[in-house]
Design brief:
This protein has 6 helices and 10 strands, in the order βββαβββαααβαβαββ. The termini are far apart. Bound molecules: adenosine-5'-diphosphate (2 copies). The site of one adenosine-5'-diphosphate has 7 residues, from helix 4 and helix 5.
């Protein structure tokens, strides 16, 4: 189902190689974290999985299908970013259903999915609120609900907790792990925070200077302090 395969991926900009020969086989249902210092190529790798950046070389496959030449909307995935941009003039319900309305889902199906997604992130009962009536954690949950509602096989998350305060960040880690267990989807998660990476994921891809140095169980990975 939602396995993700990267084969010899490269991304070169004018004078930088952002990603250099990255190959990863992420299995269906795994929670994999790309971790490493700022500038090591994590976001670029994720953006190539999403289709937001075109690889200079190499292939990306999702669920057994080569998607390298497909636009983002045709890949079976949803992405949650660091900067949670909800539409300020739309209530929570409309924010969550926006992507479905774009894709011409019928009203009944939209309602069903929105209610279910809101329940999953424990935000049912808040669908009529406006974004400025929500706390940071609640907005983050809504951003996640907006991704869930499309029922993707793969979630991509780029530092989704980075803008939250420390207490809420730790709380949301647990929530994301619960969500992963409940939905059973594949998650590819980007963070520079080693502790976050260690506690959340099944496998870590430790990156440095554009390359994956280790791809292993968190307990067996070795870090330079
Ligand atoms: P990370 O997510 O690990 O912080 P990035 O993937 O954002 O790293 O960036 C990897 C490298 O590629 C960095 O050196 C960055 O400056 C460079 N880079 C990223 N995007 C661009 C771009 N659009 N143009 C030029 N260089 C870029
Ligand atoms: P969590 O998302 O983990 O449940 P939050 O930190 O998001 O916790 O919110 C804790 C409580 O504080 C919520 O019930 C929320 O209603 C309230 N709250 C915090 N900040 C705001 C805000 N700016 N506007 C409205 N309610 C807020």
């Amino acid at each position: 189902m939602g396995d993700v395969k990267l084969e010899h991926l490269y991304k070169r900009y004018d004078d930088v190689t952002a990603v250099e020969d990255v190959s990863l086989a992420i299995e269906d249902g795994e929670f994999v974290t790309l971790v490493g210092p700022s500038g090591c190529g994590k976001s670029t790798t994720l953006e190539m999985i999403a289709g937001l950046e075109t690889p200079s070389e190499g292939r990306v496959s999702i669920a057994g299908e080569d998607v390298t030449d497909l636009p983002p909307k045709d890949r079976r995935l949803s992405m949650v970013f660091q900067n949670i941009a909800l539409f300020p003039h739309m209530d929570v319900r409309d924010n969550v259903s926006f992507g479905l309305r774009l894709r011409d889902f019928d009203d009944e199906e939209i309602d069903r999915r929105v209610e279910q997604a809101a329940e999953t992130v424990q935000m049912d009962g808040m669908l009529d609120r406006m974004p400025d009536e929500l706390s940071g954690g609640q907005r983050q949950r809504i951003a996640i609900a907006r991704a869930i509602v499309r029922e993707p096989e793969v979630f991509l998350m780029d530092e989704p907790l980075a803008n939250l305060d420390a207490k809420l960040r730790v709380h949301m880690r647990t929530e994301l792990q619960r969500l992963h267990r409940e939905l059973g989807t594949t998650i590819v998660y980007v963070t520079h925070d080693q502790e976050e990476a260690m506690t959340m994921s099944n496998r870590l891809a430790v990156m440095n200077e554009g390359e994956v140095q280790q791809f292993a169980d968190p307990l067996t990975c070795y870090y330079e302090p």
